[in-house]
Amino acid sequence: MTKRQEKALLTRQKLLDTAEDLLKTNGFNALSVDDITKTAGVAKGTFYVYFKHKEAIAAEICRGYFKEIENQITKMKDKDIITKLSLYFDNFMNAVELYGIHICREWVRSSIDPNTAPDNDDISKWQYDYNMLENILNNAIKNNELKENTPVQTLTHYGMMTCWCMSDGTFEPKKWTKKFADIQLKAVFGKYIKEK
Questions:
Q1: What are the backbone dihedrals phi and psi of residue 193, each rounded to the nearest 5 degrees, phi first?
Q2: What DSSP character marks residue 151?
């Protein structure tokens, strides 16, 4: 890698780190390209070299967080599928609470009506989450944790984040995620778990 490429990577990461700090502190609605570039100490045009708009940088921040979750689960070779899914849902709701209701509403808005979201070079947040959970379940089938007839597509749909967004934040996602994992996961997956 050349020094120029290294510098470009550092600048991009600086923008991501700055935007993440601002996002956590001020929320999505208050996030602006001006604030990101001023706080990061880079020219406004530099932002647009790496990202099309604030939604793009927010999506990239969230993808990084969810990639870490996926990596954690991949490394859990000695854990059963219920433990893996519980970790997934718990960390997912941590991200929901961490990044706030406004960014989650943005995710939901682009999922429910993609025409209202800015142009996006990659898949929507909903599709990204769906694919991640689908991969977890498909890997469990491949690793003989779940039976081959497990209805992956049906089990991949969920709506706790949507409930939180629509309740104006009064729905407590972490509390309900724990209940869901403790009560529902075994009931939902029980007949698909392979006997060892």
A1: -75, 130
A2: -
